[in-house]
Write a structure and sequence with these properties.
By secondary structure, this protein is an alpha/beta fold. The chain has one domain: Rossmann fold, CATH 3.40.50. Helices cover 42% and strands 14% of the residues. Helix 3 packs parallel to helix 4, helix 4 runs parallel beside helix 6 and helix 8 crosses helix 9. The radius of gyration is 17 Å and the shape is globular. 40% of the residues are buried.
Amino acid sequence: MKDKIILITGANGGLGKAFVQEIVKYKPKKVYCAVRDLQNAHELKKIDLSIEIVALDLGNIDSIMALEKKIDHLDILINNAGVNSNARAFESKFLDIDINTKGTMQLTQALFSKLKHKDTKVINITSVLALVNLPIMAGYCVSKSALHSFTQALRAELSNYGAKVYEVLPGPIDTRLTEGSPMPKAQPIEIVKGVFEGISQDKIEIYPDQFSKMIAKRLQHEPQKVVEEFAMSVSSK
C-alpha cells in the first residue's frame, strides 16, 4: 500500500471505514474515499491527510463517470460498496443487482483503462452467500453470485496486463447491512486483516473469517446439506 493511489467505494460504511483506517498505516500516496452522501463523510477526512472524499452513487451512471474523470491514476481498487434489501426471490425490486452487480461492473468498466498495468490490484468484496443462496435474502445472494462470476471474468481480462484480481467472500459482518440479525458476526477489522493476510499469500479467493471458512469447507464436502439448511430460512415464513 505504500505510496499507492487507492480507491475504496462505500468508504464510510463499517467495512469501508475499517479498510481506510488500516490502509493509512501503510502510508499510501492518496486514498480516494468514495461515498454516496458527502454529508456523512466528515469523520473520514480526519483519519489521514492522504484521504480525499469523492462522491459516488453506484446507481447513477453520471456519478460513476464523474468520478472516473477525477482519477488520473489508480493502483488499487477496492469494490466494497453494496446494499442488502433483505428481499426474498419475488419481493426483490432488483436494487441489490442494480447496485452490487451492475453498479460495480459499470464503475470497474469506467476505470478499466487505469487498471491495465502491472502490479495493479482489484479487490472485490462479494460474500460467502455468492456460493449458496440464503432465500430469506435471495436478492442480495443473487447479486453477489453474479459479482462472483464477474470477478472471475475480470481476473482473466486483467491478467493479460499483469494486474491481480482478488475476491473476498466474508460471512456476516457487524455493520449496517446485518442490523437486526441474531447470527454471530465478525468485526470489520477482522475482515480487513484477513483480506491483507490473504493477499500476502496471493490467494485469489479469500475467506477472511471463521464462518466463511466453515461454509466454504462444507460446500466442498456436503454441498447439498448446506443448501437444504439455508433453504430452511423461509420454510416457515
